Amino acid sequence: MITVTRDAFPLARTFTISRGSKTVAEVLTVTLTRDGITGRGECVPYARYGESLASVTAQIESLPPGITRSALQQALPPGAARNAVDCALWDWEAKSTGRRVWDLAGLPAPAPALTAFTLSLDTPAAMQAQAAAHAHRPVLKIKLGTPEDMPRLLAVRAGAPRATLIIDANEGWTADIYADLAPRLVALGVALVEQPLPAGQDEALRHLPRPLPVCADESCHDRASLAALRGKYDLVNLKLDKTGGLTEALATCDAARAMGFGLMVGCMVGSSLAMAPATLLTQGAAFTDLDGPLLLAQDRDHALLFDEQGIHPPPAQLWG
């Protein structure tokens, strides 16, 4: 039996990107029960990809109750619905066999991985205050994507002078804006820029100077999207809600590495249940960005551990 519930997790503070703001993380929790054993998965429907809580729920509820993980890959397209069910199936298999999910996947147990902490888009003064409050964190990810971003970036660097900085433009720049900003990003010690141009309008990246690494987010979904990214991007950001679950994410990870892409492991704003499967992808990744639970006012029971070593693999009570 597969059931879907809507859960809402209030955020610790308003979270703003170039496309809008949110105060609550609205997620779907899938519970899959067979033979008296229950597995769980979580997804975050994303309007940018044409998803809503209602549409993703309908996709999940259309599945036959006995669907296998293999059949699921053809039954649903990449996206949030397939992700939640795929991860619930992995969790169910781990619990039914008494093995950890990384053993089932043929992987070593994941070690803790340093994760970026995301600073919400705001005024320069507010972003400097955010940066100062989190200056102890080794990696800060800054949400930008407007024509007036340099004052914000300068403010963040002033607030956190020693942190490694990642910029996420969320498709908010034009080619001209990015070409103007890129050398200044390098001068401020920015290590990576994520999705500077809109997906579908990123061909200009083939011809622009590459003074710092560029990572595909909205332009990268699963293995099928990788070939078109060659020559435009140096890294790809793998998110389970884009790949449609851990099964495809593991395959996309291998394919991306074989094609010479560096890896970033990212997330939507969700709970520890959503982040837990992604911890299997972090080993060897250039950047990990699984800070969703750190943005919440309250997380799930048996939440993931975050400490000075980073994000730890999930306890079995949570997932896997």
Show the helix and strand layout.
Elements (H helix, E strand, L loop, with lengths): L1 E16 L2 E15 L2 E7 L9 H9 L7 H7 L4 H18 L3 H4 L12 E3 L4 H10 L5 E5 L6 H10 L4 E5 L6 H13 L2 E5 L19 E3 L18 E4 L1 H4 L2 H13 L3 E4 L6 H4 L11 E2 L17 E2 L2 E2 L9
Parallel strand pairs: 4-5, 5-6, 6-7, 7-8, 8-9, 9-10, 10-11
Antiparallel strand pairs: 1-2, 2-3, 12-13
Count of beta strands: 13
Structural class: alpha/beta
| Sequence stretches where pLDDT stays below 50 over 5 or more residues | none
Task: Give the count of helical stretches.
Answer: 10
Largest sheet report? 8 strands, parallel
Binned, the helix content reads: 25-40%
Mean pLDDT, as a whole number? 96
Distance between the termini: 19 Å
Radius of gyration: 19 Å
The secondary-structure element order is: EEEHHHHEHEHEHEEEHHEHEEE
Strand-residue fraction? Answer: 15-25%
- Please give the order of strands in the largest beta sheet: 4-5-6-7-8-9-10-11
What general outline do the C-alpha atoms trace? globular
